[in-house]
Amino acid sequence: xxxxxxxxxxxxxxxxxxxxxxxxxxxxxxxxxxxxxxxxxxxxxxxxxxxxxxxxxxxxxxxxxxxxxxxxxxxxxxxxxxxxxxxxxxxxxxxxxxxxxxxxxxxxxxxxxxxxxxxxxxxxxxxxxxxxxxxxxxxxxxxxxxxxxxxxxxxxx
Length: 157
Description:
about 15% strand
């Protein structure tokens, strides 16, 4: 902030000095030369911060900021994927439980998801009932969860 303040004060002082000089000069060729020179001085005062800038340090700060931004974007994507995975698992489990109820079976399902091309897909299911052929076929045909990825409660005798 002090850099901006110092630059602005320099521009104001240069404008004030040049205004006084222009007012004090008589008309003629000399006045034209002084105005041209004054314009160059004012231009130098205006671009002084660009000349004095440490571009290597500025580039280093930019790189650090970019790396921090990339890290935050990665964290956001991970949180978003985790939330999406949870939603898909919950909705799929509710769908399975609803379909099981329509078949006359009461159960609770737990879904495992895997990422495919950045999108979570249900890949395995654990059901708290013994093996049911109709529900197993439904899981395989409608959800694409093969029999090898279906886990059923063991029957204890």
